[in-house]
Specification:
The complex is a heterodimer of chains A (690) and B (222).
Chain A lengths: L9 H16 L16 H9 L4 E5 L2 E2 L14 E9 L2 E6 L2 E6 L3 E6 L1 H6 L10 H13 L9 H13 L26 H6 L11 H6 L1 H9 L16 H5 L12 H11 L26 H13 L4 H6 L7 E2 L5 E2 L15 H20 L2 H5 L2 H8 L4 H11 L2 H4 L4 H6 L5 H10 L15 H16 L9 H9 L4 H15 L9 H17 L1 H9 L8 H5 L9 H14 L2 H13 L1 H6 L3 H8 L9 H10 L4 H14 L9 H8 L12 H5 L4 E2 L11
Antiparallel strand pairs in A: 1-3, 1-6, 2-9, 3-4, 4-5, 7-8
Chain B lengths: L1 H8 L6 E11 L5 H10 L12 E11 L2 E10 L9 H5 L4 E7 L3 H17 L5 E7 L11 H11 L2 E4 L8 H11 L2 H10 L30
Parallel strand pairs in B: 1-3, 1-4, 4-5, 5-6
Antiparallel strand pairs in B: 2-3
The chains are: A mainly alpha (690), B alpha/beta (222).
Chain lengths: 690, 222
């Protein structure tokens, strides 16, 4: 339904047609991008795309790649136009991948203003709405870094906001937060961040969002203000940004992506992070600097047509400004920011990534979740990470959140009476991922959604109400999906995967600390002995790991990979990850000679040790069966005085959720992999907008 | 700030270092973590993540040229539901800071409940301080200083109104606790103590975890 929505606005058609004409007529032969992908350096292409390419368009449909040179994209996804090829074929860049696409499958929404500048202005008559609008938008565009011709003005603006940073901001690290001792952010810089407007923190528009708001897209598109560089109101990462956009400029403007990209490159090309790509798409390795021989050649040739020069880029370098990583978390300095993990280093990994994406699309749209759970191939697929573009749908699919959802219930729960619980919720809403762009604005959509989801849950399950830790779960979900979807996923997660964890006695977490104690003794006897002799027990670190689903303890790249597996295999993966963390840190811990040293480390493990690949690999090498966990649960319930008498049944039920360790695989992925090229989204009704 | 200076002034290698376990209790969002953060890092975050489970940090202060006190601080989650975990943290605590928010009258009631629980369940010698935090928000004050002071006197607690944000009274709070600890007596006790959350007899003369500069170069003398 959404996918096939036709934008009928005359204005939109006009924009589309004119941009296409402009691109075709543009003398871009000098641009050092050839249609032969084999000859290209990904870095060069990406570099060009980051700075905006020639413009951008938005996919009308989900397009599967037919051959390796084709671009795959989803409806609503933004594609940077790199070059006009022939007929209706263009070269585009989407989510870190370069490929050919057909103009029929997209809407051109924006032509890079620098390209416009390079066109003969006489080519278009004065009074043309398109350009009128563009000029109009220039007036406020000057407040963003994006326009090279506005650089001076901007530099002044940004400098002043930097100066307004509290000077004490970066001096000390928060001693606990989702960051570690190794990497810290500074919340005190938030106010000034807000004042800096959208551009630094903008994120690419998100496919699900577009899909779910077809009307909004077409309406705002029809305003033609999309030529500006403001963000799309309501897009997951831009609540505060959109708040700063004048009402009459509310726009479907995906160009924020450009800004993000350019900002990334601003920081010595550490753009990888810049991909600020919530979807965790893979990007090529970041260019280390502008002296890259290929790059400089490339930059020169681009400059001939389009003013993308070193000067332009370096003028925008703003070394003191806070940075946003690929997941939307802000960092005070580049040194603190984790290195990007989602890199596509070559064509083979890109191809592999795209294949996984296709498989996942097949899974969530065609497979029965019961079948999926038993599929050992799918298990492998999950463990290698769900592609970011499919992640929200996949979590909901695996968690069966659709089984829980009842149309209209979420909205009616929101009408429910306010009670004490809401005050408690508000206290945590203000303290949930405060360094994430989605939640940094006090009055932003992110916090509003979070409050709504948690309040609705407290109404929905009044026995449980609200328990601290749920806010971390809901916060993570809201980074991936709209509020109502997040609500039902929270319901499925708390009621099915994490039964007993958030109840009045926190009984399950207390049982878990006993279970983990036993597991460490079994798997790491030497470490167990060392920890015990120093008086360090699992109750000191396990609650903060489990009750937040590790969102406060692991680097975000690992959190997402862990959640992928969690929704497939259930809570068992929490035990695995706990053991894996201890194993990875074993040598360090064994060298600690006091409880202070041990605890200081364990409660703030530097993120660099806990990257997703090592962590998951270690976790899945550990031989751990649900039977063992159940055995220790029973033992704890009967033997351990600190948990004796607590109900351990919920824990055993949790263990039944998800993949049941069966190796019987059903024919599934293979038969699904030969998909047609176009998947209509309405085959998957539960992912449609409500 | 002050804590840090004191730490530098002191040359603990020459004197005695006493190690105490301190637990922070109090209702959600009264500023427990911020107090610790101010004390240990002399830093304040307007936006700070909720504490889930518990957080741990250590800080060393010098009382005089010969006496250094090292606090191992357990900062706990405030929500009522987490109460069931609290005994794990206060079980072997030598001292406690019970925090309320001067702008929230209910938070003082909660603090009183914590004090009762500590007096009933914790180490009978535990030193308890009551801290009325957020005193920078005087215009929104809901708990009068006298009210709290009266209660503190009655219950035999140290009492300070603090502001983690402005750093008001934060160092004084912890220093007063340190001074109130029966140092010699506790040192004797701890000599034989080998189990529990905070075993003594740890040799801290070896350089500590570089991440934890607060306890570097400390010596413990039992």
């Amino acid at each position: 339904m959404v996918m096939t929505t036709k934008h009928t606005s005359t204005d939109l058609e006009l924009v589309d047609i004119r941009i296409r004409e402009a691109l075709k007529s543009l003398a871009i032969s000098d641009v050092a991008i050839t249609e032969n992908l084999q000859d290209l350096s990904m870095e060069n292409i990406r570099r060009f795309a980051e700075t905006g390419g020639l413009g951008s368009c938005v996919g009308k449909f989900d397009i599967m790649a037919e051959d390796a040179d084709d671009l795959m994209f989803l409806a609503g996804e933004r594609i940077i136009v790199l070059k006009y090829l022939f007929d209706d074929q263009y070269l585009g860049y989407c989510e870190g991948v370069v490929g050919n696409f057909n103009a029929e499958n997209v809407h051109f929404v924006e032509l890079d203003p620098r390209v416009l500048d390079s066109l003969d202005s006489e080519q278009y008559s004065e009074g043309n709405d398109y350009y009128e609008n563009r000029r109009m938008s220039d007036s406020w565009r000057s407040s963003t870094t994006w326009q090279s011709d506005q650089m001076d003005g901007h530099a002044a603006a940004s400098t002043s906001s930097i100066n307004s940073f509290p000077s004490e901001g970066g001096r000390d690290r928060p001693y606990y937060s989702r960051t570690s001792l190794d990497s810290s952010w500074t919340g005190s810089s938030l106010p000034s961040i807000r004042s800096r407007q959208s551009h630094d923190y903008a994120r690419p528009s998100i496919p699900w969002h577009d899909m779910q708001n077809p009307m909004r897209s077409s309406q705002s598109l029809s305003k033609l203000s999309s030529l500006g560089n403001h963000s799309y109101r309501g897009a997951p990462y831009m609540p505060s940004i959109s708040a700063s956009v004048p009402d009459d400029l509310e726009s479907f403007d995906t160009s924020d992506m450009n800004e993000t990209y350019s900002d990334e490159s601003d920081h010595d090309g550490d753009l990888s992070s810049a991909t600020a790509n919530k979807k965790e798409k893979r990007l090529p390795a970041p260019p280390r600097n502008f002296t890259d021989p290929n790059l400089s050649t490339r930059a020169k040739s681009v400059v001939s047509d389009i003013p993308i020069s070193e000067a332009y880029v370096s003028a925008k370098v703003d070394k003191d400004s806070p940075l946003v990583d690929e997941y939307g978390f802000m960092w005070q300095s580049k040194k603190d920011m984790p290195p990007p993990v989602n890199l596509i280093l070559n064509k083979a990994t890109m191809k592999e990534y795209r294949e996984r994406e296709v498989k996942w699309l097949s899974v969530v749209s065609k497979m029965d979740v019961g079948t999926a759970e038993k599929d050992s191939k799918l298990k492998k697929l999950v463990r290698s990470g769900i592609p970011a573009s499919i992640r929200a749908r996949s979590w909901q699919f695996l968690a069966r959140s659709r089984d829980y959802s009842k149309p209209g219930l979420y909205q009616s729960l929101l009408q429910g009476a306010k009670g004490n619980i809401h005050t408690v919720i508000d206290l945590d809403v203000a303290r949930c991922f405060p360094n994430h762009v989605h939640f940094m604005d006090e009055n932003g959509e992110g916090r509003k959604d979070l409050r709504n989801v948690l309040s609705a849950y407290a109404q929905y399950n009044s026995d449980l109400g609200y328990c601290q830790g749920m806010h971390c779960l809901a916060g993570c979900m809201l980074m991936q999906m709209p509020a109502e979807d997040a609500f039902w996923l929270l319901v499925a997660t708390v009621d099915r995967y994490l039964k007993g964890y958030f109840g009045p006695e926190l009984s399950q977490i207390r049982i878990d600390t006993a279970i983990i104690g036993e597991l460490i003794r079994e798997h790491q006897p030497k470490l167990a002995q060392h920890l015990e002799s120093n008086g360090v027990t699992p109750v000191m670190y396990i609650p903060s790991w489990f009750l937040t689903a590790f969102t406060l303890s692991l680097p975000w790249s690992s959190v997402l990979r862990l959640w992928d597996v969690f929704y497939f295999e259930g809570v068992k993966v929490f035990y695995r990850i706990s053991l894996a963390i201890l194993e990875i840190c074993k040598d360090y811990l064994l060298n600690c000679r006091s409880d202070t040293e041990l605890l200081t480390f364990l409660l703030h493990i530097p993120h660099k040790y806990l990257g997703p690949d090592l962590l998951l690999e270690t976790a899945f090498r550990i031989k751990l069966s649900k039977t063992d966990i159940a055995k220790y649960a029973r033992k704890a319930a009967h033997m351990d005085s600190s948990v004796a008498g607590l109900p351990f049944e919920s824990g055993l039920e949790n263990l039944k959720v998800g993949n049941n360790h069966s190796n019987t695989s059903l024919p599934s992925l293979k038969s699904l992999s030969g998909l047609g090229k176009r998947i209509k989204s309405n085959r998957q009704p539960h992912t449609l907008p409500r | 700030m002050a804590a840090r200076q004191q730490q530098q002034q002191g040359t603990p290698a020459q004197g005695k270092t006493y190690q105490f376990k301190l637990v922070l209790l109090g209702e959600s969002a009264v500023g427990k973590s911020s107090l610790v953060m101010r004390f240990v890092k002399d830093h304040f975050d307007e936006y700070r993540e909720s504490t889930i489970g518990a957080a741990f940090l250590a800080q060393t202060i010098s009382l005089d040229d010969n006496t250094t006190v090292k606090f191992e601080i357990w900062d706990t989650a405030g929500q009522e539901r987490y109460k069931s975990l609290a005994p794990m943290y206060y079980r072997n605590a030598n001292c406690a800071v019970v925090v309320y928010d001067i702008t929230q009258a209910a938070s003082l009631e909660k603090a009183k409940a914590w004090v009762n629980e500590l007096q009933r369940q914790a180490d009978p010698n535990i030193v308890i301080a009551l801290a009325g935090n957020k005193c920078d928000l005087d215009s929104r004050r809901a708990v009068e200083t006298e009210t709290a002071q009266e209660y503190a006197d009655e219950a035999g607690l140290l009492f300070f109104e603090t502001s983690a944000k402005s750093a008001h009274n934060v160092t004084q709070l912890f220093t007063s606790i340190a001074k109130k600890m029966p140092l010699d007596q506790l040192a004797d006790q701890s000599r034989n103590k080998t189990k529990g959350l905070n075993p003594r007899g740890v040799d801290l003369s070896r350089p500590a975890n570089p991440n934890n500069c607060a306890c570097k170069k400390s010596l413990i003398v039992l």
